[in-house]
Amino acid sequence: MGYGFIIAGIAFLFVPSFGIIDFMPDCIGFALILTGLSKTSRLNADLQSAYKSFRYLFFLTLAKLLLLYPLTGVNDEMTSMLYVFSFAIAETIFLIPAFSRLCEGSYYLSSRTGADVSDRAYGDFRLTSKIFIIARAVLAAVPELTVLTNNAYRESISADELGKPTIYDSKNIITIMCMAVSFIIGAVFFALAVRYFLPLLRCRASVSEMKRIYDEEFVLNEGKRVYNAVKSASLLFTFGCFFMATLYIYGWDLFIDVIGAALMLAGFIALKGVIDTKKAVILSAVAVVITAASTFLEFYTAKKYFTDASYITDASMNSYLVSAAVKALGFIVFAVLLYYVYRCFCIVIKKHTKSPTFDEAGYKKRLYNKCKALCGVGIAACGISAACGFMFSFSELFRFAALLLFGAYGIYMYVTSSKLCAELSRYI
């Protein structure tokens, strides 16, 4: 009932960030936790409260990730300090009640369904989660706060003392030490979380009992279930397409491709209960890896070579080509994912729609053609976006065209999928 996703999501959270750079984005971890709680949260009020808190955290950390891109070009340490400090406080405010409710709700379910979760595992996880959350915020903020001590020191000393070392001069060492301590505390927290959730995940009797309770209390008719799955997947696919657009600021893409790939993965998982999406899920996971590599390479290239004019020079050409090639590979894989979207929609049309007239074949053919057009336009958008990175003389023009094309395609995806959902809703 989703505990595997919860464990995977926690794995994204315990890896500390290096300054303002988060190598394993927390928003992906929160998205995995939300996926795990999507059904289980309906069985308990505490889990419903936890689901709401994790949903707020997902949007908060998504905003944090999006703000990171323009922030890296500002090169102002005071701004970076405020960025880290503000988000550390905001995340802590939501994380403490979120994990507390998650712990309480899952412990109640374990006692209700007969899972063998010990009181000690429950107590250790609950206590360690609070220690981890507070330590995570403090250890992330401490290196950045050295900027304040440096400013105060510079203002209070004479000109002869300016050469003396300060705490700020050891910022890199402090950052590494804080990362190491945070990683150790996070590893202990993750180990205790696994020990706590593993019995719930492995106990077949408990999982069967939770599914039985869910089926009796919440499962709707087949048509409603298909409608909800397609509607959720359509929204995820639409947002995924928007994130594949390209808007470059300070030399790198503001719309992070890895988030688009992760949303596509979540969309195919949402359809898993309706049709077989195993191949699409695997390919989506591959797309997440490729787009993550592309994001890292873009950041590295822009950080090292970007100037106010451009960073395509003789010195940066090889790095730029590697970055553009990996990004193009991500678009190619994304194009295949759009083909799978087309195939999934066609299967849904075939199995779960009915014609309001006697012309069943003609009715479904028209729906197929709409999905085929959706697939074709999407593949074309991916092709143009993949190619524009190599067109040095017209790169900005083509990137703007790709931005408009993917933006229009996202709207087209939403309109087409909404019409499909409207057809499905007629036969609930």
Explain what you see.
About 1% of the residues have low confidence. Helix 8 runs antiparallel to helix 11. With 428 residues, this protein is an all-alpha fold. The longest helix has 38 residues. The chain starts with a helix and ends with a helix. A hairpin with a 2-residue loop joins strand 1 and strand 2. The radius of gyration is 24 Å and the shape is flat. The chain has two domains: 217 residues, no CATH class; 183 residues, no CATH class. The chain is built from 13 helices and two strands.
Key terms:
single chain; 428 residues; mainly alpha; 2 domains; two-stranded antiparallel ribbon; 13 helices; flat
Global mean pLDDT: 77
Protein structure class: mainly alpha
Helical segment count: 13
- Helix percent reads over 70%
- Classify the beta-strand content into a percent band: under 5%
Quickly count the domains.
2
Task: List low-pLDDT spans.
Answer: 155-159
Largest sheet: 2 strands, antiparallel
Instruction: Categorize the overall geometry.
Output: flat
Helices and strands, in order, run as HHHHHHHHEEHHHHH
> What radius of gyration results from the CA coordinates?
24 Å
Give a count of the beta strands, DSSP E runs of length 2 or more: 2
First CA to last CA: what distance?
25 Å
Physical arrangement of strands within the biggest beta sheet? 1-2
Short description:
The chain is mainly alpha-helical and 428 residues long. The chain has helices at residues 3-13, 26-40, 45-72, 77-113, 119-156, 171-202, 204-217, 222-243, 257-270, 278-305, 317-352, 360-388, 395-425, and strands at residues 248-249, 252-253. The protein is built from 13 helices and two strands.
